[in-house]
Amino acid sequence: MKTDASRLSPNPVLAQLGYPPDARLVIFHADDVGMCHGSNRAFIDLQAAGVVQCGSIMAPCPWAPEILDYCAAHPEIDVGVHLTLNSEWPGYRWGPVSTRAVESGLIDARGHFWPQVAQMQATMRASAALAELRAQIELVRAAGIDFTHLDTHMGAALTPALFPAYVELGFEYNVPVLVLRQLDDYVRALGFTQASDAEWSAFVAELEARGMPLIDHFRVTPGYGPGEDEGGRADLYAATLRALPPGITYFSLHPNASGDIEIIAPERAHWRTFEHDYFRSPQLLALLQREQIQPIGYRALCTLMRTARRNRRQL
Fold first, then answer.
1. Domain residues of the chain, as ranges?
2. Fold adopted by 13-84+148-314
3. Which residue spans within the chain are E strands per DSSP?
4. Given a cut of 70, is residue 79 above it in pLDDT?
């Protein structure tokens, strides 16, 4: 069932940030920061270029220490925690920071996270998974980073057993979590909730009343097929951006500088290195200007949330 976006009230965050209700804001978000050296290099390059203003760190990954040190030394960086319960690349694996106990259900026979979310769901103890999510957040905080948001690798924290706790972690740490105001066909296909439109609207109203800024729409790296040439890839992103409705869109990107991703994931490297180039290109900047699309980061939303919750406590 589709949600009729025309019946939804405008996202209050638009007005709070000083934009009209028909504005199109996009959080171009670098996922998988810390996964490898190339993901760190790409995030640093793109954040400096200005369109991709934020990303999130996979704390359990081998190259997380590099980006944790960088972000601690550059406190202006807009970065969140990419809560991770899966390790999907053959030959390049990682595991929990909180435990190596088989009884947790979080790990395979070699001590790594399960490659797929379905495997994780079938074996995990919810209490162990929640402890792991908290441990990852604390690892980032202990590095001295004022992180701005929480999101989730491969949607793992959106599974029914974890989703309520995932949301509450945002309130506990006083940062927004990636939650959508509407359930469109794409989000429903993820399968993390069977809520009706009315039930979801009530849930969204409760979160917003508690001061949580939410996202309207979700988009993701549009494909990994090796057949498209560079122009064809650019056309896919351009078509996605031109079709964006009003509101705030979270665009989940997976940029990598070349060097190591070609070994880790050769079948997907061409898309990830393309995003590193495209999202700092004059071609993209011109498209965003023509379409009147405004890139933003998560820090603005985090500031709104902290201000709203502080004001509520003072009442």
1. 13-84+148-314
2. TIM Barrel (3.20.20)
3. 24-33, 54-57, 79-83, 150-152, 217-220, 247-253, 293-295
4. yes
